[in-house]
Structure formats: structure tokens, C-alpha cells
């Protein structure tokens, strides 16, 4: 120990450690920090302790600089505007690097551009990294953040250490993960996920800093090294690119660990629904692509009596079969990083009530009385109040343009949610009885259906598609494939990932039922056929009854079990066109299956497990005959 310590101190050389006790960090962490200090050459090193004093110190600094601005209407809430060039995840600059290309990505058809993850060779990645990281923190402080994904010390949890030169990132990591010195104790000399993040804006700055938000959008690079459990992110401060515990660790790296250890790391919410009459509680996990309704569903406010909904997680689920074969899930995160626009006291009161204190609002508008504002809050603020948009312009409700960026976000502690589940931090997790897939499907796809089997359900998941949203850089509303809602988060070969899902159906595992939902089907006038939000409880009610084997409420269709007419509670709803909501246009489905088959052939040809082809063949046959 002594020898290693000496070397490390020498390597940190003249760079001061302005906070924390370096000598008491675990050895492996010392070496990790020392190596990156040498590479990034920060002005100082700051070891975070996760305390409130620390947060206040950082907030104060950021207020002085002008990056954060206090919203005086609430308690400890701050608004932040980014450089308008740094507002979303950047999928095109996200890579996985492994020795063997086909560990990272599937074999694609010749001439086809793979969209299920991107591989970069170790050699090229080294060049790209060398072109960015050396000296990238010059003149800035490097923060060392110890964090746990999942409750600290739980057997299902994993530890990471993030180095970053962004104090905004530090503040958000404190909300989204569990940052604490206890992490060092639990870690000891074990392995951890190595996370390195830089805004890519060393001093003196070369690039004009806009809104006091340093970044380097031209040179964004988000690199994953699953073999050594390392993540290096450069150039962006936006959440999905910079809060490395979230998408990079809890999905892309974790799914690699999950494959090796026989569990699942998925882009899923977890919620519990209690039927008040019997007290029976059913837990559901659901995967929808980014900005397609996970946060809203996870904390929905039921519009019909008799149900109590409680949220465990709104974005990521780690799930594992226990020794009795029951599937248990935890939420590895500690906060919600939610889409702001569309959120209001009608659509999602629980989210609104969660973010009235200790929260950070990014790229939203601000009202003259010190409140937040975004599209969807028209009826909840004074109609004539002066508003400053996310771009800093003066604006009023009714004028052209928007107050908030469509991907504006709130970052708030999950524990503040009025309906947070009492077991949300239970180390064992909660028992998952159903998995739901879904997406934005304007035509053809019914409100809900149930897969015939696990294998069929995995195929349904593999064929998930959705309209593009503002959560990443895609423009327009094109319908994109997004298998299991994981396309942007694929951390290894997509074909093998499907194989992993299929492999879970073995003794003693009791695999959950799989469903598909679509809140976004339109009528010919372009209006939603389904009211959505709190009314989605009506669909969950049907799902729960199916989970508990109620047979009389389902009818067989070519694509799966559909609700029998009248089996979904429509009491108190305006007119709902059941036939249109559940119709299965034959030509649409024939085309859709052909197109999905083509997608799988293009993107994962030889790697797609035979069981998926068999399911597609059978589906095609049923649709043709049906
Ligand atoms: P997430 O990114 O998957 O967590 O999605 P959110 O729950 O944040 O929702 C993203 C956007 O979809 C928001 O603007 C919501 O208002 C909207 N949304 C969510 N649920 C529904 C729904 O049931 N129906 C409709 N029409 N829109 C919804
Ligand atoms: P979301 O999370 O799924 O709630 O949109 C952020 C993201 O996926 O980018
Ligand atoms: Mn997400
Ligand atoms: Mn969300």
C-alpha cells in the first residue's frame, strides 16, 4: 500500500487536492484518479462527500457564475439554460469499443448501416481519445464522485466513480444517484465502473461559451469499454451524455454485466398497482422509448376508483430471478430526470409535486414571479405573466414560438414523490408480474394486446417501433425501430441480446406475461383515439386481470390476445371508438411484419436467434389467415 501511495502522490504532483483525503481512497481508485489527473491536467482535485454543505457551496459558485438561477417561488429549486447546441443525447457520437467488433454489434447485411449501437476499434478509439482528453480539464477542477446505483450495499447494487469537470453534472449526479463517502467503505478494494466526463472546454477557452455552459458539441464522444467497465464522455453536459450513472452505466455497461450474470438491465419503469378491494398488489415493468410515456405511467393518478398506484422507478430497471424463480426488480437510480413539456397538474400531478423543492430545471422557461414554465402549463399560470424562454427571450403565452425546449427536463429526488413506493429502496427489489412494451404508433397498433408466450413476447419487444422524439438528435417524426426501447442504449451485440432474453425462460424461472400498449393511435383527423395519462389505469386494470389468469376477458387475434369488447372499464369516459382503437388492418400488419423481418435481417442477420424467426413466421401466417 505504502509504495503505491507514494507513486500516486508523485503523479498527482503539483496539483492540489482541495477537498477530501486522497490517501484514504481505495487503492484502485487512487490509481484511477492519478492516471486521469495526469491525462486531463485539472487545476485542482475535489473529492466529493455528498453532504448538503457541499451542494450549497457548488450551487453558490454556479449562481455567481450565472449558470444556475434560483426559482424564488419554490424551495431550493434552480433553473439552468444550456448552450442551445447541447440539449439532447447524441446517438451518432456514442460508441462501444471491444477487441472483437461482434461483441459490441451484430453482423449487419452488407451495405447496411447498423443502427443497433456503433462499434469503434480500440486503435481508432485511442486516436479519438488522444485527440480530446489530454489537457481537457486545464484550468478547471476535477470532481471525484463516489456513487452507488441502487441502495448502497444492496447485493443488486453496483458502484461507480465519476470524474468530471462540470459542477452542474455533480449536482445532478447527487440527485440521480446515491453519492456518499459510504460508497468507499462498501467498495473496499473491489472493482467499480470507471466513469470519466469532461465538457471538453479547457481554459483558456477556445470556443465561445454560451449561457455560461461550457461544452464542445463538435467533438462530442461517448465511449464505452465494457470489457474494463469504463466510460469516457467528452464534449456534452446534457444529462443522458454526462450523468454517466444513467444511460452509460445503468444500461450500456450494466447490460453486459447482466448478460454475464444472467439478469436484465432494461429501459423500464417499475410501478406497483394495488386493487383496494382485495389489497392485492401487482408490479409491472414497462419499456417505452425516450419521451414516450414512462415517467407519466409510472406515477399515474388513476381516473377510476379502486386503485392505488405507487412508483418504484421511471426509467431504468435491473431485474433478476431469485432462487425460487420469481423475477425481482430494483430501480438503480435515486431521482427522476423527466421530460418537462406536457407535465402539469392534470397529466402528472405526482411529478409536479415531486419537483417543487431540491430540483434542477434545464432549458425550461421562467415566469416573472420566479416560477418555471413550459408548454402544457398554460392553465396553471397567470395568462398574462411575462416569461423568459429557454433561449432568454421575452415571451408571453399565445405568442409564436415555445417557452421551453421540447426536451427540457426536471431533475428531482425520487424520494420526494408523494406516491413513491415504500419498497423503492428495498435491497431485494419488488416482484415483477408483467412486462409491457410500447411506443408512439399513430396507425395500425391497438391500445393493448398480450403476447401468446415468452418467445412471442420477446419477438414483440424486438419489433417495437416508435415516432422519433426530441430526446435525441433525430429530426422529424419518422417511425424508427427501437427494440425493447433499447436501440440508443445497446451495449453489446443486439442478436445476442435477444438470445439472452430468450434464454431466461428456463426452470425454475417463472417468466412474466408480456404485453404491448399504444396510447398514441390517431383517428383520421389526427386526434388521439385514447385519452391517455390517468386513464391508462383502465388498461393496466385489464393487464392485471390477465396476469391473474382471468380468461374470459381476452379474445384471440392474429397478433396476440386482445381485450374482449367491453372488458376494459370505460365508465365516465367520453366517446371512445372501441372498434377503431382495436382494429387490425390486415394490409398494415402484413406490411409491418415484412418490414420488421427486413429490419432484423438488415441489423442482426446471422445473430438473430432462430426462435425469433419462428415467431415471425407464425405471426405472418396467422395474419394472412386471420
Ligand atoms: P418518458 O420519457 O418515456 O419518461 O416519457 P414521459 O412520461 O416523460 O412523457 C413524454 C411525453 O409524452 C410528455 O410530453 C407527455 O406529456 C407525453 N405523454 C405521456 N403519456 C402520455 C399518454 O398517455 N398520452 C399522450 N397523448 N401523451 C402522453
Ligand atoms: P426518458 O429518459 O426515457 O425519460 O426520456 C431520458 C432518455 O431516455 O434520454
Ligand atoms: Mn430513458
Ligand atoms: Mn422519463
Note down, in words, how this protein is organized.
By secondary structure, the protein is α+β, with helices and mostly antiparallel strands. Helix content is about 25%, strand content about 20%. It is built from 17 helices and 31 strands. A hairpin with a 5-residue loop joins strand 16 and strand 17. Helix 3 (about 50-65) packs antiparallel against helix 6 and helix 16 packs antiparallel against helix 17. The termini are far apart. The mean pLDDT is about 95. Bound molecules: guanosine-5'-diphosphate (GDP), 2-phosphoglycolic acid and manganese (II) ion (MN) (2 copies). Guanosine-5'-diphosphate binds near residues 293, 294, 347, 519 and 520. Keywords: Decarboxylase, GTP-binding, Lyase, Manganese, Metal-binding, Nucleotide-binding. One of its GO terms (cellular component) is cytosol. Its EC number is 4.1.1.32.
